[in-house]
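If your schedule permits, I should be very grateful for your opinion on a structural question. Thank you for your consideration; the sequence and its tokens are set out here:

===
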Amino acid sequence: MPDALLKVENLKKYYPIRSGVFRRVNNYVKAVDGVSFEIKAGENFGLVGESACGKTTLGRTVLNLHEPTAGRVTFNGNVLFDVEAKQEMDQKSIQSMRKDMQIIFQDPFASLDPRWNVGRIISEGLIQHKILEGKAAWARAEELLELCGLDKSNALKFPHEFSGGQRQRIGIARSIAVNPKFIVGDEPIAALDVSIQAQILKLLQKLIHELNLTFLFISHDLNVVRYFCDRIGVMYLGNLVEVATSDQLFENTMHPYSKALLAAIPGKGDPKKRIILKGDVPSPAAPPPGCKFHTRCASAMPICSKAAPEFKDQGGGHMVACHLYD
């Protein structure tokens, strides 16, 4: 196995809640609450979970787009940040590292500057990182458009002249322009029609193969993640509860929350045996003690409300945080 390209250790991202006349901090929203995982070079790692479980925040904090509250992230052997050790790359090193770590946003329209034409949008990174300039940067932008399935003549057009799927192709072209090693795909197909989703997934797979990319693919669609990813992490209320290969997760699901997610996939299994989660998702500002899932878990035991389960390897790299397997 290749070495880990990205290593995340005990990553936390808390947002302060302020109130009163003096706007003092009286609590925190624990969006990401102690997450650890690795992504190997050339691997597609999927991240799934309900809305507001912290997936997007995790992806952006890993890239240091959001300032982390705690934890350590190492990329390609270099420490991006280590909050406890008060260690962080200097601005020049961060700028250099940016070209190796890119992101594809969920909303393909909001992420594109409406005042710029497509050629300028795609070539911006090339110019910013001093890779190419002038006509060479523009020519490369045209090449990237064609690589992503659009005619090079579209370089003179503006984002509002394209459909959602075409805009996402432009966003993908922009993300690969600087030859990155690692890309965070923040639900890159969620805002697209189903037929267009398949086309974008095929394009991403083609680019991953041709450009030797490593991916963190964030999604709420388990069928898509199974098709696209080598390993999958299941997230609940700011924590990873299960990490396994795609085959392990779908053939030997272990965590009760993961089982509920898989049972909710349309057309999968017996509808009469579908697992209906009771209650609402607890607030990330006031998560329950012990296992955060115990308030909705049909298999909860007394210990679940008292102690948080350890994230343990149950064999073959299948990681689970659940007292059922202690």
